[in-house]
Give the backbone structure.
Amino acid sequence: MKYHVQPTNQEQVMRENDFIVSKTDTKGVLTYANRIFIEFSKYSEDELIGKQHNIIRHPDMPRGVFKLLWDTLSQQQEIFAYVKNMSKDGGFYWVFANVTPSYNPEGKVIGYYSVRRKPKPGSIDVISGLYKEMLMAEQKAGSKNAIEASLELVTNILTDKGISYEEFILSI
């Protein structure tokens, strides 16, 4: 079943000790969602398991962020990112995510494990401004070149600052 959710301005703020945990297969299909994920997403466990993780993707999130995430994971590296998610009722919640590959005993990637927590105060102001710029670059470039345009914008900003993506994310 496909859900058509209309975004609202209703924000849910994570509590200090909350950890949203999920597991997916290598294609991003949810195989596990903890009770905090279920609470914030407002989907039932049955509505989540077996669905694409992007069921909670907010339209304010630039496509370039997810390209960076998947490119990093494909290199069997962990990634940190700020993500604005959308719950089933259209509300939103910000998370600071850490996503890592999961391996079988033979060392083959079999999925991904993500732990999200409440973002640091002030980090959302910084990251939401960047994401707005990325979205504008994506819209200006058009669908075909959107991802490349937003990634180029981020690369140029980081080059000007003389820092890596990870250094930037962990510094805000």
